[in-house]
Design a protein that fits this description.
Blueprint: E1 8-12, E2 18-22, H1 35-41, H2 57-70, H3 90-100, H4 106-119, H5 137-149, H6 157-168, H7 177-185, H8 217-232, H9 240-248, H10 277-293, H11 296-316, H12 324-338, H13 343-351, E3 356-359, E4 362-365, H14 372-385, H15 395-408, H16 439-453, H17 469-480, H18 522-536, H19 543-560, H20 575-588, H21 597-608, H22 620-625, H23 636-648, H24 654-666, E5 681-683, E6 687-689, H25 694-710
Antiparallel strand pairs: 1-2, 3-4, 5-6
C-alpha cells in the first residue's frame, strides 16, 4: 500500500516551515515536483553525471557542492530533510488525532503505515526506541497501537508478527513511563498503573531547587502537558476499536491485569535508566497522596496553573511546542480545555503537520520540525571554509541560506511569566517560530552571517543585516555560560544549568539518561567559543567579557577531555564528532599539535582509530557505552569529522589526513553526491537520529580545508 509519490509536494514558508501536500493527479503537470522533492523521495531526481570527472580533490569538491546546492529548497533557502530516527513520536500525532476526533488525511495515513511496515524489525517484527534499535517494549507497543488506530486489522501479518513479539517480551505492561501515559490517555491502561506526574510541582515557588522550570526545557515541556493529563487522569471514552486493542497488547486479558502493582514494571530490554530508591519512595507517597489526601481544589488549582503555563509556551512557540512529544500532549490538553472548536487547540493540532515528513520509506514524525537553521549555518560557513563561497555558481544558494538565517533570528522576547530567558538576538535549531534559543545554533548562525557580510564577494548583501543585531546575540551567548557552581565555564544546550544534576535521581523516564537538567556539552562549548571569537575579530562589543568567557570555556574543554585524549560527543556519533569541535575551538585560540598537550592527545586519539581503509567510522554503541566503538568500514561523515579536526590542529602527518580524504573521494557518486551510510546523530545517550545534510556539509568542509591547507591540485588523485 503506497501513495503515488509523484503527487507529493513539499510546501515551505520563508521562515522554513515545511508541510507535505498530496495534490490531485490532474494538477501534477501544472505544478511539477522540484529537484529537492524528487531527491527527498528518491524518485526520479535528476542526477546528471557531474560536470567534471573528478580527477582531483578540488574537482570532487566542486561536484559535491554543485549537487548539494541543486537540492536546496529555493523558496525558503533551507535544505529540508527527513530528520528521522526516534520511533516514539508517531504515537503522539496519531493519539492526539484519535483523542480529538481530528482527521488524518488519507495519503498521510497510508504513508505513516508504510513507514512503520518498512521499519519493523525484519526478524521479530517489533520496533525499538529508534529506527535501528533492537526491538523494545516501548517501540513495539507504541507502534502497534499506531498501526491499529490507523486502521490496520489485528490479523494483518505485520500486526500479528509484532503482537507475537510483544507477547514474548511480556506485553505492554513493560512500557516505560511515557508509554504508560500514552496508553492511559487512550484508555488502554488504567491510570493507577502509571507513576504520578503531579502538576503541584509547577505551583512551587521558583526558589525551590526542584522547580520544574529549572529542568531541561524538553523534560519540563513534556511533564507540563503530560502532568496535566496524569493529574486529571484524562482518558478517552472507550470505543469498540480500543476495546479490541486492550485485549491485544497484554499477555492476559485486560481485566486480569493488575495495573496498580505494575507501576514500576519496565521491560528489561527497555530499561536504560532505572529508578532510584528515592524516586520509588516518592512515587509511593504520591500515590497515597493522590488517593487519600489531595484536595480537589488543589488538583484544579495546579492544573489551572499548568494550563496557564502551557498557553504561554504556545504563544512563545507559535503553537508549535518545543518538539513533537510535548506538542502532542499539549494538543490534547488544549482540546480538553477549549473543546474541538478552540482556536488554540486547532492551531496546535494543525501545526503538527510540520513534523510529518515524507521519504522513500513512507512518512515519519520527525525529532523536531526540522533542522533548518543548524544546517544553513553550517552550509554558509563551510562554503567559505572550503574557499568556494565566492564561486558565482554557488552564490545564489549561499545568498538564500544567508537570508534565511537573517530572517530566523529572534526579535521578540517570550511572554512574561513563562520562566524563559531573554532570547532576542539568538537562533533556534529549526525555525524562528519554534522559539527556543540553542547555544550552539546561535553561535554558528552568528558566525555564518558575519562571514557573509564581511566578504567582498557578498558586498551587495551587507545592507541586509545590521551587525548591531549581533550585540543581542552576544548578550544571550554570554548569559548562557555556566559560571555558577555547576561546570564552570561550559555551555549547555538551551539554557544555563539551573539545578543540580542530583535531580537525575527523580528522572522518571526509564529509557533516557541525563534528561532532568541541563548538562555541560563540550560541542556546545566549542561552537560558542568559535562564534564569540569570530565575532570579536570584527566588533569590539564586550571584548573583555568575551575574552574572559572564552578563556573559561577553553579551560573547560581541556578539563572535559578524557585521559585517552578523546571527548565524548552527546549530539553526534560520537568521539570523532566531539573531537572535531574541540580541536577546532582549540585551534581558534592558537593551540595546535605543535604547542599543546591537549591537542596532541586529541589528535593521537583520533589517529589511533583510523581504519585500514584510511577513514574513520563509529557506531551508536559508542554513544551508549561511552567507549569508542568502531564500525568495520569507514564512513564518510565520521571520516570528515576526523580529517577536519586533524587539519585544523595542524597534525603534522599529511599521509594520515590524505588517507581520510581519499576515502571520502572514493565514496562520492558520479553525480557528486554522497549516499546515506549510517546514523550521524544521537540524543540522551540512547536514541539515534539522522542528519541527512551532514554527508554533504562535512565532506565539503574537509575536502576544502585539505585543498587550502596543502594547496594540491593534481597530486592527490
Ligand atoms: C527524550 C526527549 C525529551 C525526546 C524528544 C526529542 C528531543 C529532546 C531531541 C530531538 C532532536 C534533539 C536531539 C536536538 C537537540 C536537543 C534534543 C532534541 C531536540 C539539540 C538542539 C541540542 C544541542 C545540539 O548541539 C544540537 C543543536 C545538535 C541538537 C539538535 C537536535
Amino acid at each position: 500500500m503506497s501513495t503515488d509519490l509523484s503527487r507529493w509536494r513539499l510546501r515551505t514558508t520563508k521562515l522554513g516551515a515545511q508541510r507535505w501536500e498530496y495534490i490531485a493527479s490532474s494538477a501534477t503537470s501544472s505544478d511539477p515536483q522540484d529537484a529537492c522533492t524528487k531527491y527527498l523521495l528518491n524518485t526520479d531526481c535528476p542526477r546528471p553525471p557531474a560536470p567534471i570527472q573528478p580527477k582531483t580533490a578540488a574537482q570532487a569538491l566542486l561536484n559535491g557542492a554543485t549537487f548539494f546546492t541543486s537540492i536546496q529548497d529555493d523558496y525558503s533557502g533551507t535544505w529540508p530533510v527527513q530528520y528521522k530516527g526516534p520511533m516514539f513520536m508517531t504515537i503522539g500525532y496519531v493519539a492526539a488525532a484519535y483523542f480529538t476526533g481530528s482527521n488524518i488525511p488519507e495519503p498521510v495515513r497510508i504513508e505513516l503505515i508504510r513507514y512503520l511496515v518498512n521499519t519493523a524489525n525484519p526478524v521479530d517484527g517489533g520496533w525499538g526506541l529508534h529506527e535501528k534499535d533492537k526491538t523494545t517494549c516501548f517501540g513495539t507497543t507504541m507502534n502497534y497501537v499506531v498501526l491499529r488506530l490507523l486502521g490496520l486489522p489485528a490479523d494483518h501479518p505485520v500486526c500479528k508478527k509484532a503482537r507475537e513479539t510483544l507477547m514474548r517480551i511480556g506485553g505492554a505492561i513493560g512500557c516505560p513511563h511515557w508509554g504508560k501515559i500514552w496508553l492511559a490517555v487512550l484508555n488502554l491502561y488504567r491510570w493507577e498503573g502509571v507513576n504520578p506526574a503531579p502538576t503541584e510541582l509547577f505551583v512551587l515557588p521558583y526558589a525551590a531547587p526542584i522547580h520544574p522550570m529549572r529542568w531541561w526545557v524538553h523534560t519540563r515541556a513534556i511533564y507540563l502537558a503530560a502532568g496535566y493529563l496524569a493529574t486529571a487522569k484524562s482518558q478517552y471514552a472507550l470505543t469498540p476499536l480500543l476495546e479490541e486493542i486492550r485485549q491485544e497488547i497484554f499477555v492476559t486479558s485486560f481485566e486480569q491485569v493488575d495495573f496498580a502493582s505494575n507501576r514500576n514494571t519496565v521491560c528489561e530490554i527497555d530499561l536504560y535508566y532505572p529508578h532510584s530508591r528515592l524516586l520509588n519512595v516518592l512515587n509511593w507517597f504520591m500515590v497515597k497522596y493522590e488517593k487519600y489526601a489531595r484536595p480537589n481544589w488543589l488538583l484544579k488549582y495546579s492544573n489551572k496553573r499548568a494550563y496557564e503555563l502551557i498557553l504561554k509556551d504556545m504563544e512563545n512557540t507559535s503553537y508549535l511546542s518545543i518538539a513533537p512529544v510535548s506538542g502532542a500532549f499539549t494538543a490534547i490538553v488544549l482540546y480538553l480545555e477549549q473543546g474541538p472548536q478552540g482556536k488554540g487547540f486547532q492551531r496546535s493540532f494543525d501545526n503538527m503537520a510540520e513534523e510529518l515528513f515524507m521519504g522513500p520509506q513512507g512518512m515519519a514524525v520527525m525529532g523536531t520540525n526540522g533542522s533548518q537553521v543548524w544546517d544553513d549555518a553550517f552550509a554558509v560557513q563551510y562554503f567559505f571554509a572550503a574557499g568556494i563561497a565566492g564561486n558565482p555558481i554557488f552564490k545564489p544558494a549561499i545568498t538564500r541560506a544567508f537570508r534565511f538565517l537573517v530572517r530566523s533570528q529572534f526579535d521578540t522576547e517570550c511572554s512574561p511569566g513563562s520562566f524563559r530567558d531573554p532570547r532576542k538576538g539568538a537562533w533556534p535549531f529549526s525555525t524562528k517560530e519554534q522559539g527556543y534559543t540553542v547555544s550552539d545554533c546561535t553561535a554558528e548562525s552568528m558566525k555564518a552571517i558575519l562571514m557573509v557580510i564581511n566578504s567582498d564577494d557578498y558586498k551587495e548583501l551587507r545592507s541586509e543585516f545590521d551587525p548591531q543585531r549581533l550585540h543581542d546575540s552576544v548578550d544571550v551567548l554570554l548569559s548562557l555560560q555556566n559560571v555558577g557552581s555547576f561546570e564552570y565555564g561550559s555551555f549547555a544546550s538551551y539554557e544555563r544549568i539551573k539545578a543540580t544534576p542530583l535531580l537525575e535521581w527523580i528522572n522518571p523516564a526509564e529509557v533516557f539518561g541525563n534528561i532532568m537538567v541541563e548538562y555541560p556539552y563540550v560541542e556546545c562549548t566549542d561552537s560558542t567559543v568559535l562564534g564569540l571569537l569570530y565575532f570579536s575579530r570584527h566588533d569590539s562589543y564586550r571584548k573583555d567579557d568575551i575574552k574572559r568567557a572564552v578563556d573559561l570555556a577553553i579551560a573547560y574543554i581541556a578539563r572535559a577531555q578524557n585521559p585517552d585524549g578523546s571527548w565524548y560527543g552527546s549530539w553526534g556519533i560520537c568521539y570523532t564528532y566531539a573531537g572535531m569541535f574541540a580541536l577546532e575551538a582549540l585551534a581558534e585560540v592558537g593551540k595546535t599539535y605543535a604547542n599543546s598537550e591537549v591537542v596532541r592527545k586529541g589528535c593521537d586519539f583520533l589517529v589511533s582509530k583510523q581504519l585500514p581503509d584510511g577513514g574513520w567510522g563509529e557506531t551508536m554503541a559508542g554513544s551508549e557505552t561511552h567507549k569508542y566503538v568502531s564500525s568495520k568500514e569507514s564512513m564518510v561523515v565520521q571520516t570528515s569529522w576526523s580529517v577536519i579536526g586533524l587539519i585544523l590542529a595542524k597534525y603534522p602527518k599529511q599521509e594520515v589526513i590524505k588517507g581520510g580524504i581519499e576515502l571520502i573521494l572514493s565514496r562520492q557518486q558520479k553525480s557528486g553526491e554522497w549516499l546515506y551510510e549510517s546514523d550521524e546523530g544521537v540524543f540522551n545517550h540512547s536514541c539515534a537520529i539522522e542528519y541527512p545534510n551532514y554527508r554533504f556539509l562535512f565532506p565539503i568542509k574537509a575536502i576544502g580545508l585539505y585543498e587550502r591547507t596543502y594547496a594540491l591540485t593534481s597530486d592527490n588523485e
